[in-house]
UniProtKB/TrEMBL annotation, chain A:
Belongs to the ubiquitin-conjugating enzyme family. This is E2 ubiquitin-conjugating enzyme. Residues 4-150 form the UBC core domain. Residues 158-167 have a biased composition (Basic and acidic residues). The active site is at C88 (glycyl thioester intermediate). The lineage of its organism: Eukaryota, Metazoa, Spiralia, Lophotrochozoa, Annelida. InterPro entries: Ub_conjugating_enzyme (IPR050113), UBC (IPR000608), UBQ-conjugating_AS (IPR023313), UBQ-conjugating_enzyme/RWD (IPR016135).
Automatic annotation (TrEMBL), chain B:
Residues 68-259 form the OTU domain. Its EC number is 3.4.19.12. The active site is at D76, C79, H252. This is ubiquitinyl hydrolase 1. The keyword Protease applies. Pfam families: Peptidase_C65 (PF10275).
Length: 167, 259
């Protein structure tokens, strides 16, 4: 059934394929246009560089009038990302504008990676280290960057899942 | 739910999600018992709503003297835009000249908004739906059609969004003049981001002035508030002749009809 939300999501997908912002990819999951998987590559010259971070995006029929629910699936260490992967970002909550699309959402999250907002911490440890001990912060970030590659292996080779160091 | 006394705030827990879920539940409850745009009705239910509230009795009498009927709009924070949009589309059914005038303004609005910096891709999506529904007035010429458009949640909200974008564009274009209306040291861009563009944000005087100015549509609002004296009316823009009439009750707008 075609609803405004589904029609818009098809357009969002087409646009993301034809004109993808740097370091971002995303696509609806196999047979559900309302549920997307996305990858954000850690921006260059930041501690997140070379990371491949997976996210899930869940839309409702109210999209684009209401924001989607976006979560990191890959482990993340960042002042504005909660332990469950959900993201504390104003445009995904009370400052959502219907003029945003998937590409704008992912670009905003990408820039949040290198530009955290320590005033609304979702991860206290990350927020404190970011403010007070940048070296230690960067070390912790580099750990989750390495872990983000292991996630990739999981996908390629799910049958024989290698032991991961994360848990 | 935990009892308040047992509640300990945990800074690393995500409460946003819970809050949003709760908000959605309240919205669903309202949606379950109220159409986005209700049928035309007499004032019986309005009487009942305020029968124990002396402050409003005189005002209701005034409303009844000036108007014959009204239409309830769902209280979801978009009521001003939805009431304005519906009442105006409805008025166009009987006014082909005005239809032509507005169709032209609506067509041109897309490029204006893109020039102002709105993202073309998403703007076109809203504009397309808006024009498609507007043009139905000319082909269908039926009130049933307009009701169907405005009671289909997705389509109805698309129209609300486009009206919100028109207001946002107008305010940013005329920032020099309207800046003085803002409090709290916000820039016009911030105000539009926070109070105009997001769905569900309630409308104030500034939204009404901007929408009537930007579209050239004259609206009269009758204010049913707790103040002493008679029902007070404002016409936007001043000194013009209204094509639609809205009833304001604290925090809410419905549509009024003389006939």
């Amino acid at each position: 059934m075609s609803t405004p939300a589904r029609r818009r999501l098809m357009r969002d997908f087409k646009k993301l394929q034809e004109d993808p912002p740097q370091g971002i990819s995303g696509a609806p999951s196999d047979n559900n246009i309302m549920f997307w998987n996305a990858v954000i590559f850690g921006p260059q010259d930041t501690p997140f560089e070379d990371g491949t971070f997976k996210l899930s995006i869940e839309f409702t029929e109210e999209y684009p009038n209401r924001p989607p629910q976006v979560k990191f699936v890959s482990k993340m260490f960042h002042p504005n990302v909660y332990a469950d992967g959900s993201i504390c970002l104003d445009i995904l909550q009370n400052r959502w504008s219907p003029t945003y699309d998937v590409s704008a959402v992912l670009t905003s999250i990408q820039s949040l990676l290198h530009d955290p907002n320590p005033n609304s911490p979702a991860n206290n440890e990350a927020a404190i280290l970011y403010r007070e001990n940048r070296r230690e912060y960067e070390k912790k970030v580099q750990l989750i960057v390495s872990e983000s590659w292991e996630d990739d292996n999981d996908d390629d080779d799910q049958a024989q899942k290698p032991e991961t160091s994360s848990k | 739910m935990e009892k308040a006394a047992d509640f300990h705030y945990n800074a690393e827990q995500n409460y946003d999600e819970e809050t949003i879920i709760q908000q959605r539940e309240i919205e669903k409850e309202i949606a379950g018992c109220q159409d986005l745009v209700g049928p035309k009705e007499d004032f019986t239910t309005l009487d009942r709503e305020f029968e124990h509230d002396v402050a409003f009795l005189k005002k209701i009498q005034d409303v009844k003297q000036r108007y014959r009927r009204f239409r309830r709009i769902r209280a979801d924070g978009n009521c001003f835009f939805r009431a304005f949009g519906f009442a105006y589309f409805e008025s166009l059914l009987k006014n082909p000249d005005e239809f032509k005038r507005f169709q032209d303004i609506a067509l041109k609005s897309k490029d204006e908004l893109i020039t102002l910096g709105f993202p073309q891709f998403t703007l076109e999506d809203f504009h397309e739906t808006f024009m498609q529904e507007l043009n139905k007035i000319e082909t269908n010429k039926s009130i049933e059609g307009v009701l169907q458009t405005f009671n289909d949640c997705g389509t109805s909200d698309y129209i609300v969004v486009y009206l919100r974008l028109i207001v946002s564009g107008f305010l940013q274009k005329n920032e020099d003049f309207y800046q003085s209306f803002l409090d709290g040291g916000r820039t016009m861009r911030e105000f539009c981001n926070q109070e105009v563009e997001p769905m569900g944000r309630e409308s104030d005087h500034i939204h009404i002035i901007a929408l009537s100015q930007a579209t050239g549509i004259c609206v009269q609002v009758d204010y049913m508030d707790r103040g002493d004296g008679n029902l007070i009316s404002h016409v936007f823009p001043e000194d013009s002749s209204p094509s639609i009439y809205l009833l304001y009750k604290p925090g809410h707008y419905d549509i009024l009809y003389k006939e």
